[in-house]
Write the structure tokens for this entry.
Amino acid sequence: MNRTLILTIKKEWFDLIKSGKKKIEYREYKEYWKKRLLNKSYDFIEFRNGYRKNVPTVKAVYEGYVVIDGDITPLGNIKQFAIYIGDLVEENE
């Protein structure tokens, strides 16, 4: 069974992932993300551009994550997850 991590993102980031230019998605190291990422395995990441039922989506291979603590990243100098985005496998407009 394929497990898919679903992430909702803004159009700016969605377009960069779709184009292949963005290969890492960052999430702050909080309880919500710890429950979804720590000790879990996924096959794919589905990026959704919005919260409605029929929104554009892009599916990519899940390449794992690392925890970053203290490095300067787009989220600033805070502890966070860096989720690696692999090859795109599906696109739905």
